[in-house]
Amino acid sequence: MNRLFIIVLLCLGSFPYTSQAQEFKFGVKGGVNKTFGGQLTGIASTAQYTGDTFNAEGEIGFHGGLWTQLSFGRFFIRPEVVYSKLESRFDFPRRPAIYAVDELSVPFLVGFNIWGPLDVYAGPAYKKVIESSLEGTEPPDQSIVVQNFPLSAQAGVKVEFGSFGLDVRYDHSLATAENQQVDIVNSVYGVNLANFEDARLHQVIVSLTIKLWDSANKDKRRRGGRGCYF
Question: How far does the signal peptide extend, from start to end residue (predicted)?
Answer without folding.
Answer: 1-21
